[in-house]
Amino acid sequence: RPSAAAGAAAAAGLWSEVNRCGQNGDFARALKSVNKILQINKDDVTALQCKVVCLIQNGNFKEALGVINTHTKVLTSDVIAFEKAYCEYRLNRIESALKTIQSASQQTDKLKELYGQVLYRLERYDDCLAAYRDLIRNSQDEYEEERKTNLSAVVAAQSTWEKVVPEDLGLREATYELCYNSACALIGQGKLNEAMKKLQKAEELCRQSLSEDSDVTEEDIEAELAIIHGQMAYIMQLQGRTEDALQLYNQIIKLKPTDVGLLAVIANNIITINKDQNVFDSKKKVKLTNAEGVEHKLSKKQLQAIEFNKALLAMYTNQADQCRKLSASLQSQSPEHLLPVLIQAAQLCREKQHAKAVGLLQDFADQHPANAAEIKLTMAQLKIAQGSVTKACMILRSIEELQHKPGMVSALVTMYSHEEDIDSAIEVFTQAIQWYQQHQASQTRGPKSPVHLSLIREAANFKLKHGRKKEAISDLEELWKQNPKDVHTLAQLISAYSLVDPEKAKVLSKHLPSSDTMSLKVDVDALENSHGATYVRKKAAKLTGDNQQKEQGQGEVKKKKKKKKGKLPKNYDPKVTPDPERWLPMRERSYYRGRKKGKKKDQVGKGTQGSTTTGSELDASRTASSPPTSPRPGSGAAVSAASNVIPPRHQKPAGAPATKKKQQQKKKKGAKGGW
């Protein structure tokens, strides 16, 4: 029929257009041609497949999946399994993608590749590792390097999140991606210095690789290096170099990378550096962790850590309701995790509700016995903060798996000693020693372990220190039995027996080494003359002749200290008797008449206008009422003529001129007179 022939010719032309556009990568024009073909035949399987591919190439995954689900009768799972699974994977429907792949009748190489990606997103690293190993072993094409990179990424994830020691895959680290993944694996093992060297190598390889492309700018290179620099900053933070880490983190943020996952991790790490300081900056950074799509870029543990830090930030910023809401949500997601309940308890403590916090922790410890030890340690700390040391000790002693640990024994003994409960402290020692005895008896009958012997010695020393020598005897005997050559222990044992059984002490004292064997070859003189000696004996000077006879006759005579000759005033006159009242303050002396009010300058100009004052009136030393104790400066002649004796410390040298600077004293404002 002409209409059918015309339709077939039109379809052929459209298929040619689709083929040409597909080769050129113009999938938008190809999609238009495919839609025209489907108008001619809506159930054309090839046209429907092409439409799905064009939509995927254009990034329209939801629309492509809609086409597949609409035409399920035509597009069966055998025909379109990969495209359907890929759309579900890109739409972050990971579980659905896994079911689609597993339901396919034939596992093609494309499906296996996608299967590995799906397993990685589901964090099933063991299965993912096996899938990539199978792919590398059974395929030979140009994508081998990418598969090896993915394989190293799986190993790095195992090392980081599951703490699995990675096996050596024998991969040649020729690309910066492989170097980066190797560095991540080393970080998971705690080998930070080696990891830093790997990252530096990865940075160098990245620059070399990208600089070969003329179209790549320096900004593009820095954007590609952002994730490597972020990992470097993380290592610095783990090493305690927080200032360097913070500087590098902020440099990455300024680049504004498009990877929302990288930005979220960096923002979270900055918040952990800030802690309870610089909360304004932390509140700005926390917005980066809320970006769209972050939940699909990070692992579950990374997302959980971010949520924990959000709750802590809410607590530090006094947002109590928000803190409780976030911690309750975290607890519902991970009921056995410690951090949510610890955050809730910390918030209650900030609100001064210590009893409620302890009750909350106790309920959690009862519900989750596996995590009870860490919770009870926190409860004990709260009790100590409240001053209830005895209750804290009771809580600590209820942790059975830690009772015998040296650290726990030391803490309990210290706390009981603080409370002066010596009996309880000794009981702690006894229980710990018994545990080691039972544990050692069940495994071996050889010599006691160093920890066991250390506990026995500490128990003995503690008992001796607190006057419990009788109780210390059994411990000391056990120690001496283990090491008969230990003289210190033997001496302690003899001291303890001396109060209980003196005869036994005498018998044991025979085991002590003789004084000759115990003497140490020490040069006493050299020791006393050493730099660190606190007492040095003075060597006696050799006495000869008359001195020796004098010493023998008089015996030891203590040398008297020579008194230093006192200093005399510069104007001291030996002919003049010193003033007996010279040691008293001027105001307390018998001849002190007080200080004249006013100054000489105040006297000038008084009286009738134009009148002048004679020089004799201004000379206070000439007046009869002037006290002889305060001579005018420079009046050396008046000193010898005075009826009363002038104190030496107030005298001037005899050779001083009588009228020294007399004119200057009149001109000076505020200058005081001879008083």
TrEMBL record:
A GO cellular component entry from the record: signal recognition particle, endoplasmic reticulum targeting
Gene Ontology terms: biological process: SRP-dependent cotranslational protein targeting to membrane
Ranges of the TPR repeats in the UniProt entry: 226-259
Segments crossing the lipid bilayer: none
Localisation per UniProt entry: Cytoplasm; Endoplasmic reticulum
Single GO term (MF): ribosome binding
Any coiled-coil regions, as ranges: 94-149
Role noted for this protein: Component of the signal recognition particle (SRP) complex, a ribonucleoprotein complex that mediates the cotranslational targeting of secretory and membrane proteins to the endoplasmic reticulum (ER). The SRP complex interacts with the signal sequence in nascent secretory and membrane proteins and directs them to the membrane of the ER. The SRP complex targets the ribosome-nascent chain complex to the SRP receptor (SR), which is anchored in the ER, where SR compaction and GTPase rearrangement drive cotranslational protein translocation into the ER.
Compositionally biased region (Basic and acidic residues): 570-591
Name used for this protein in its record: Signal recognition particle subunit SRP72
Pfam families listed in its UniProt record: SRP72, SRP_TPR_like, TPR_8
Ranges of compositional bias, category Low complexity: 605-643
Domain Signal recognition particle SRP72 subunit RNA-binding, chain residue ranges per copy: 538-594
UniProt keywords, alphabetically: Acetylation, Coiled coil, Cytoplasm, Endoplasmic reticulum, Isopeptide bond, Phosphoprotein, Repeat, Ribonucleoprotein, Signal recognition particle, TPR repeat, Ubl conjugation
Basic residues composition-biased segments: 558-568, 659-675
InterPro entries from the UniProt entry: Signal_recog_part_SRP72_RNA-bd (IPR013699), SRP72 (IPR026270), SRP72_TPR-like (IPR031545), TPR-like_helical_dom_sf (IPR011990), TPR_rpt (IPR019734)
Annotated region described as Disordered, given as residue ranges: 539-675
